Amino acid sequence: MTKKQKTKTKALDVAFYFIKKGLDEKKPITNKKLQKLVYYAQAWSLVLNNEKLFKEKIEAWVHGPAIPSLYEKFMQFGSKPIVLELSELEHINFSKKQEELLSSIWQVYGKYPADYLEALTHSELPWQEARGGMPDSQPSNNIIKIETIKEFYARKLRENSKRGD
Length: 165
Description:
Elements: H1 11-24, H2 31-48, E1 59-61, E2 64-66, H3 68-74, H4 96-109, H5 114-122, H6 125-131, H7 146-163
Antiparallel strand pairs: 1-2
Helix pairs in contact: 1-2, 2-4, 2-5, 2-7
């Protein structure tokens, strides 16, 4: 992303997209799952679209990557699914490439439960590096570096392309 480009969408816009998808398919999602979906949307936007989807920092929390503002917004639901009226969901007009990306993220990651996505992020370098070897159960607000995210998933894409996946 060049310095002149501004990221107009917010993590909350991306969150509303996934919450709506879950409600539309009668599969409401939890805050923990939402955090992972928004994280993967940012990661793959960096690789596939060469741009940040949103500007908020992502932290390496106990249960995986998290965006604090999203957690606070939906913490009232605890570990229960987030259920909102459609009228409560603000709608942003994503660009065509953003909409395609979000749809792909939902198709690839949306089918998995939150605990699976947590384990997946724990197995990946960006979260591990930000945690710096601390125990999984130790709270942390360490930032997951955007550069690490982009490099890791770009490498993953290259490796999968070579194997023909």
